[in-house]
C-alpha cells in the first residue's frame, strides 16, 4: 500500500484507481495465458493489506501456479496504460469546472492543423477552427485561451478544447480588465467578433452616473489596449453603448459612417440602412466585416442601400425642415 500510495500521489490520482488498474491488468494477463477473452464470472482481486493477487471464478480461487511472475511480465504495460488513463480522466474532471474560463497556455507542439498547449495540470488542444489565422503558434510561445469544452474524440479519449476565436474569450478579458463589469455595475449586452480583425461590444450601465463605454475603454484607452494586446494587437475593438432602440444601436454600431435613414422590420428582424454612396464603403467595411458584425450584434439582417449625393442632400433638408417645424 505504501508503493501504491506513492504512485497515486505522484500521478495525482486515488489509490483506488491504482488498485483497479492492477486488477484489470492482472485479469487481462490471465485471459492471455488462457488464450481466451470469454471467461464468464472471472475476476481479479488484490488484497490491499498483503498485495496478494488472486484470480476468482464464481468466488472460487483458480489462480495458476507461478502466476505472479507471468502476470508481472504481461501486465506491466497494461498497468501503466491504465494509470495514464486514470491520470488523464482526473485532469479532465479538474478542467470540467473551468469551462468558460480563460487561462494562459504555452505551446508544446503543433501539427498541420492542431496546436497542443501546456495549461498547467494538463494538455489542451487548440484545433484549427479555434485558431486566429494571422497568429503563429511557435513552441514555448504563450497565449491567453478560453477553455471552451471537454470533447470526446472517436477513440474515446477526452480532450480539453481551447479557443482563441470564441467571443467568450473577449468577455472574460473584459471582466478581468474592467472592475465595473466584474462587479455587475456594467453589463455586456452583446458581442460580435471576427477574430483577428474586428470586434463589437455593446455595454450597458445600470446606473446613469456610470459611463459604460468610458469604463471599458479606460483612462487614455489603457483597458481596451490591454485587451487588444492579449488578442494579438491586430483586432480592432469597437465599444458601443447599448440601446433598446434598434435604430439607435445600428447607427452606433456602423459609426463613424454617417447614416441617412434606417427602416426597421421588427417582424422579420431586417433593417434597411440608407447611406450616401461615399459612406457606403465605410459602413460595409473591408470584406463586409463592419456590416456583418453589426448584424450579429443587433440580431437584425442589415441591407446597406446607397443613395446618390443629391438624394442624400434632399433627405437632410427635409429632416431639417421637420425639425424646425417641430
Helix content: 40-55%
Residues in β-strands, percent: 25-35%
Q: Report the structural category.
A: alpha+beta
Radius of gyration: 30 Å
**Overall residue-averaged pLDDT value:** 86
CATH homologous superfamily assignment of the largest domain: NusA, N-terminal domain
**How is the largest sheet built, in terms of strand order?**
4-5-6-8-7
Q: What's the multimeric state? A: single chain
The CATH topology of the largest domain: N Utilization Substance Protein A, Chain:P, domain 4
Q: Main β-sheet: number of strands, strand sense, barrel status?
A: 5 strands, mixed, barrel
**Overall CATH architecture of the largest domain:** 2-Layer Sandwich
Number of domains: 4
What can you see in these coordinates?
- This protein is α+β, with helices and mostly antiparallel strands and 326 residues long.
- The protein has helices spanning 2-11, 15-33, 67-96, 167-177, 179-183, 212-217, 222-230, 246-254, 280-284, 289-298, 309-325, and strands at residues 42-46, 53-57, 60-61, 102-110, 115-118, 123-126, 142-152, 158-163, 186-194, 198-205, 236-241, 259-265, 270-276, 301-307.
- It has a five-stranded mixed beta barrel with strand order 4-5-6-8-7. The chain has a three-stranded antiparallel sheet with strand order 1-2-3.
- Helix 2 crosses helix 3, helix 4 crosses helix 7 and helix 8 (246-254) runs antiparallel to helix 10 (289-298).
- The N and C termini lie far apart (89 Å).
Quickly describe the structure.
With 326 residues, the protein is an alpha+beta fold. 40% of the residues lie in helices and 28% in strands.
Amino acid at each position: 500500500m505504501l508503493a501504491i500510495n506513492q504512485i497515486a500521489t505522484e500521478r495525482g490520482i486515488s489509490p483506488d484507481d491504482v488498485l483497479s488498474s492492477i486488477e484489470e491488468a492482472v485479469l487481462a494477463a490471465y485471459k492471455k495465458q488462457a488464450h481466451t477473452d470469454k471467461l464468464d464470472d472471472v475476476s481479479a482481486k488484490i488484497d490491499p493489506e498483503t498485495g496478494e493477487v488472486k484470480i476468482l471464478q464464481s468466488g472460487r480461487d483458480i489462480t495458476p501456479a507461478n502466476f505472479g511472475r507471468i502476470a508481472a511480465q504481461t501486465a506491466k504495460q497494461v498497468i501503466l496504460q491504465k494509470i495514464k488513463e486514470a491520470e488523464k480522466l482526473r485532469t479532465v474532471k479538474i478542467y470540467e469546472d473551468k469551462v468558460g474560463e480563460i487561462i494562459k497556455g504555452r505551446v508544446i507542439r503543433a501539427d498541420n492543423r492542431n496546436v497542443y498547449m501546456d495549461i498547467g495540470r494538463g494538455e489542451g488542444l487548440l484545433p484549427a477552427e479555434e485558431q486566429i489565422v494571422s497568429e503563429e503558434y511557435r513552441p514555448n510561445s504563450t497565449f491567453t485561451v478560453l477553455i471552451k469544452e471537454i470533447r470526446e474524440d472517436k477513440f474515446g479519449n477526452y480532450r480539453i478544447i481551447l479557443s482563441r476565436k470564441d467571443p467568450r474569450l473577449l468577455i472574460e478579458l473584459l471582466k478581468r480588465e474592467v472592475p465595473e463589469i466584474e462587479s455587475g455595475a456594467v453589463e455586456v449586452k452583446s458581442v460580435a467578433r471576427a477574430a483577428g480583425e474586428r470586434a463589437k461590444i455593446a455595454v450597458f450601465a445600470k446606473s446613469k452616473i456610470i459611463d459604460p463605454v468610458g469604463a471599458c475603454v479606460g483612462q487614455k484607452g489603457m483597458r481596451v489596449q490591454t485587451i487588444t494586446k492579449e488578442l494579438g494587437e491586430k483586432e480592432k475593438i469597437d465599444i458601443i453603448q447599448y440601446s433598446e432602440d434598434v435604430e439607435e444601436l445600428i447607427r452606433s454600431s456602423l459609426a463613424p459612417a454617417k447614416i441617412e435613414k434606417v427602416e426597421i422590420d421588427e417582424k422579420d428582424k431586417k433593417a434597411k440602412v440608407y447611406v450616401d454612396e461615399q459612406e457606403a464603403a465605410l459602413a460595409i467595411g473591408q470584406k463586409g466585416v463592419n456590416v456583418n458584425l453589426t448584424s450579429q450584434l443587433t440580431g437584425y439582417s442589415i441591407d446597406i442601400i446607397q443613395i446618390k449625393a443629391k438624394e442624400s442632400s434632399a433627405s437632410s433638408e427635409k429632416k431639417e425642415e421637420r425639425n424646425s417645424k417641430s
